Amino acid sequence: MDGPAVLAAHAALKRVLSRYPKEYAKSCAFSAKGMEVVVGEERGMYFVRINPRPDKCGWEAGTVLGFDVFELYAVSPEGKVLARYPSMP
User: Fold this and answer.
1) How many domains, the chain?
2) In this predicted model, what pLDDT tens digit does every residue of 27-39 receive, in sequence order?
3) What is the edge-to-edge ordering of all strands in the sheet holding 35-42?
4) What tens digit of pLDDT does each residue of 38-71 get?
5) In which domain, by residue range, is 42 found?
6) Does residue 71 contact residue 49 with C-beta atoms inside 8 Å?
7) 3-state SS record for 10-37
8) Concatenated DSSP letters for 42-83?
């Protein structure tokens, strides 16, 4: 991954983690370890999809925390979150 893609992924992941209640902070399933980050680039803008992956934290494979739960963000090459796809409240 190139530098701007890493910045985009980091910015989006920080945004997702900041939305969880503070009491979830110690749970692996609600940490960076429990997330899958997918980054794509189109015309100089990065699109970052973050999928919860509780199986990375020892949960049984295929475990989901909600139906088709994901976060999708548009992020600048400088790491500024420009928009969030309104798929979840």
Assistant:
1) 1
2) 998 899 999 999 9
3) 35-42, 45-52, 71-75, 81-84
4) 999 999 999 999 988 888 888 887 776 665 578 8
5) 3-85
6) yes
7) HHHHHHHHHCCCHHHCCCHHHCHHHEEE
8) ETTEEEEEEEE-GGGGTPPTT--SSTT--EEEEE-TTS-EEE
